[in-house]
Amino acid sequence: MQNKESDGKQLTAVPRSRRKTALVTGGTKGIGKAIADKLSEAGAQVIITARQPPEEPNSAHQFIEADITQPHQVDQLAHTIHERFGGLDILIDNIGGVTAPRGGFSCLTDQDWEQELQLNLLATIRLDRALLPHMLAKKSGVIIHISSVAGVKPVWNHNLAYAVSKAGLNAYSKALSNELAPQGVRVLTVSPGATNTPLMQGLIQKVAATSGLSAEETFHQMAAQVGGIPMGRMAEPEEVASLVHFLVSPAASYLTGANYLIDGGTVPVV
């Protein structure tokens, strides 16, 4: 059987021994799950990690339980990946979320700030540090940091600490890309806007319960605080996954260091 020429749809050649190996953190639900599914469909061997197993296991994914906000669990995860898979070709740092209370700076304690930074920034830095040596040794690899439009357009009464942590991730990602580009490793950032995930739906329901508005009214009110969404809807996780798939594919081989906003036009900059 002859291999077809790559058109960006496949990540690897057909033989199993030459499949690309990818890790998706937070890969059991939402955007992470959509990315893991997309990469599997494209022919990659996909490892997913999270603190709890997926509710609906996918036989195409290799699940490793880990809390990567804990340094010793990051080390164990990296060791397991090296022993079982020989390292990675693709790393999708997707873990993250809003854990701090709403209401602005006066509502946030040191613990809130530390927790947000651990989840949205430091966990990613630790994992990169643990898994990069293999990529550098073979002078190839792709790292995608999943950030947020909040990193460039924060909403003070909804996501202040989260936005600051994602802004830090954006700066780290850019600096890392400049360091690693001469060594054959590409680093990119993807910043989704409002995306139709269980986490987002839960946030909308929580805000709606305290405001007396419907979920739909609450969403439009929240969107208005960031200047609106010109496309008039949230992204679907699969749309974010399609962008990530392109960025890790050979079709994007000259791309590194950029932050790709996938926000329906929310951020009003040229």
Strand content: 5-15%
Mean pLDDT: 89
Residues in helix, %: 40-55%
Count of DSSP strands: 7
InterPro entries: NAD(P)-bd_dom_sf (IPR036291), Sc_DH/Rdtase_CS (IPR020904), SDR_fam (IPR002347)
Region (Disordered): 1-25
GO molecular function: oxidoreductase activity, acting on the CH-OH group of donors, NAD or NADP as acceptor
Keywords: Oxidoreductase
Describe this structure in words.
The structure is a single chain. The protein has helices spanning 30-41, 71-85, 110-138, 156-180, 198-211, 215-225, 237-248; strands at residues 21-25, 45-50, 61-65, 90-93, 141-146, 185-192, 259-262. The protein is of the alpha/beta class. The chain has 2 domains: 16-193 and 236-262, Rossmann fold, CATH 3.40.50.720; 195-234. A 7-stranded parallel sheet has the order 3-2-1-4-5-6-7, with helices on both faces. α1 links the parallel β1 and β2. The longest helix has 29 residues, at 110-138.
Task: Provide a quick synopsis of the model.
InterPro entries: NAD(P)-bd_dom_sf (IPR036291), Sc_DH/Rdtase_CS (IPR020904), SDR_fam (IPR002347). With 270 residues, this protein is an alpha/beta fold.
Task: Name the features.
270 residues, alpha/beta, Rossmann fold, 2 domains, seven-stranded parallel beta sheet, 7 helices, disordered N terminus
Give the SSE map.
Layout (H helix, E strand, L loop, with lengths): L20 E5 L4 H12 L3 E6 L10 E5 L5 H15 L4 E4 L16 H29 L2 E6 L9 H25 L4 E8 L5 H14 L3 H11 L11 H12 L10 E4 L8
Parallel strand pairs: 1-2, 1-4, 2-3, 4-5, 5-6, 6-7
Helix pairs in contact: 1-7, 2-3, 3-4, 5-6
